[in-house]
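Saturday, quiet lab. Running sequence design on the structure tokens for the scaffold JK sent over.
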């Protein structure tokens, strides 16, 4: 691709995010460009569903039984339409992820992978070599209500009163995500990436050209205005390395629309208003108050419009 310098080894970039931070939309931005290999959330699937993941550790809890049933429905939904790069969670060990991320990809100019930051917390030695580490954050007032709602939807939970922080791992990380991101950022700095790149989703939505230009400059590629538009739909997923159930789960009737907005996006939309504290339930406020110091620390390091 003309915007990325091609040499014997592709440029490699990791985006570490939290759920509900527009990370899939951001990924589509890069995934629509030629010469880019997208590897979607491999550590996340290892963490949740792989042979050495959290669900495998506790398969008989009611929540994990429900999830396993959902995953089986996902396998049925994808049917025979599995593409060459799509992987099944049964192969997704952390070692397999590391090997996949470090593979040569000689025909590609950029390898771009995004993952949830807390997925690697217990396996930092499995962070792949040769990657530029970048981070995506969003205000906790936006993240936690959406995260709780989408988890209830995935696990088919109708109880309005369920406290997200009372759900067992892996559904709520031990330190709620923001603390894990701070730890991961410090770890990558100590391991040879002294200037990790960090962006806030609201800044990205407010000033997409400015943020994308600075992000591209920081990772070493040329920004082009065409990066701010991409096609709606899931056709570009055909060439991604991605879990096959992730693709199909949007087709399951009870989970219809799970990724609909991200998959159908064509650009970065203007941000919604940050909810006030009075708009949040007590359990969400508990998560917010525990996470806000970490979010504020991360915010100080972010790229600004």
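Result came back. Writing it out in full:
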């Amino acid at each position: 691709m003309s915007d990325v310098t091609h040499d014997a080894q592709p440029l490699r970039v990791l985006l570490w995010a939290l759920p509900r931070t527009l990370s899939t939309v951001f990924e589509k931005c890069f995934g629509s460009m030629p010469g880019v290999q997208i590897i979607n959330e491999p550590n996340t699937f290892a963490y949740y569903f792989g042979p050495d993941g959290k669900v495998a550790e506790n398969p008989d809890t009611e929540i994990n039984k429900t999830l396993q049933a959902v995953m089986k429905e996902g396998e049925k939904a994808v049917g025979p339409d599995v593409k060459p790069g799509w992987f099944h969670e049964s192969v997704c060990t952390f070692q397999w992820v590391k090997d996949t991320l470090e593979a040569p990809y000689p025909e590609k100019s950029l390898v771009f992978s995004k993952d949830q930051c807390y997925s690697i917390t217990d396996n930092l030695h499995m962070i792949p070599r040769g990657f530029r580490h970048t981070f995506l954050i969003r205000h906790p007032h936006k993240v936690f209500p959406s995260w709780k709602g989408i988890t209830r939807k995935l696990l088919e939970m109708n109880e309005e009163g369920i406290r997200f922080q009372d759900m067992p791992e892996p559904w709520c990380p031990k330190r709620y995500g923001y603390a894990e991101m701070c730890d991961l950022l410090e770890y990558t700095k100590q391991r040879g990436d002294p200037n990790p790149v960090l962006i806030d989703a609201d800044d990205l939505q407010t000033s997409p050209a400015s943020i994308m230009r600075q992000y591209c400059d920081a990772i070493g590629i040329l920004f082009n205005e065409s990066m701010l538009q991409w096609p709606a739909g899931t056709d570009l997923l055909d060439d991604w390395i991605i879990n096959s159930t992730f693709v199909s789960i949007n087709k399951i009737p009870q989970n219809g629309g799970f990724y609909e907005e991200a998959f159908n996006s064509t650009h970065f939309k203007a941000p919604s208003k940050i909810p006030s504290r009075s708009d949040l339930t007590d359990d969400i406020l508990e998560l917010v108050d525990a996470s806000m110091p970490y979010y504020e620390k991360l915010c100080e390091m972010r790229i600004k419009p």
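Notes for JK: The chain has one domain: 11-299. The beta strands are 11-17, 36-40, 110-116, 132-137, 197-200. Ask whether to fix the surface positions before the next round.
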